[in-house]
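Saturday, quiet lab. Running sequence design on the structure tokens for the scaffold JK sent over.
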């Protein structure tokens, strides 16, 4: 073989291997960048969802107190409800940037329900059982969507496989509350 052909083959092989190594480097750099972004997004979603679920529970407590028109804690509950609804609105706005669209839309609907109930209360119409049913229904949907987005059930299943068995977990979850009441009565007898 002529030396020029050998030099050409070696040069082409070197160029090809350089391109391949560069391509792999770019791929792994992009993969590492998206992985850290994904982890950061999940962490932010987890924290925001935790705050949303906590705040919706607080609003429900305050609205429950407000159903007792003229009760001893009415004024304080109204003040706290207003602050919590305002806080929830801020969380909803924050969620626009990092929550999946379906979850954010439901958080927005829940926020609308909260502000409507508070407005109705301020108009002197009080908080009805129907208002509370609507609030609880929307809060439940937000809670369930939140669990799905964060993969709570999948993570729990993985954890059970590591530290326990699904069979023992199922057995415990199937126990009736009466069983624990009886245990409490026997312990205090």
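Result came back. Writing it out in full:
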């Amino acid at each position: 073989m002529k030396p020029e052909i050998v030099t050409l083959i070696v040069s082409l092989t070197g160029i090809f291997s350089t391109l391949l190594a560069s391509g792999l480097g770019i791929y792994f750099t992009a993969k590492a960048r998206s992985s850290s972004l994904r982890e950061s997004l999940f962490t932010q979603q987890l924290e925001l969802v935790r705050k949303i679920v906590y705040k919706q529970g607080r609003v429900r407590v305050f609205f429950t107190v407000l159903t007792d028109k003229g009760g001893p804690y009415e004024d304080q509950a109204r003040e706290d409800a207003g602050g919590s609804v305002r806080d929830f609105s801020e969380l909803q706005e924050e969620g626009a940037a990092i929550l999946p669209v379906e979850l954010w839309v439901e958080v927005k609907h829940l926020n609308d329900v909260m502000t409507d109930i508070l407005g109705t209360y301020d108009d002197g119409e009080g908080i009805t059982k129907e208002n509370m049913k609507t609030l609880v229904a929307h809060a439940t949907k937000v809670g369930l969507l939140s669990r799905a987005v964060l993969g709570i059930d999948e993570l729990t299943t993985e954890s059970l496989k590591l530290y326990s068995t699904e069979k023992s977990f199922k057995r415990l979850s199937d126990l009736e509350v009466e069983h624990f009441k009886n245990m409490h009565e026997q312990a205090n007898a």
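Notes for JK: The chain has a mean pLDDT of 84. DSSP finds seven helices and no strands in the chain. Ask whether to fix the surface positions before the next round.
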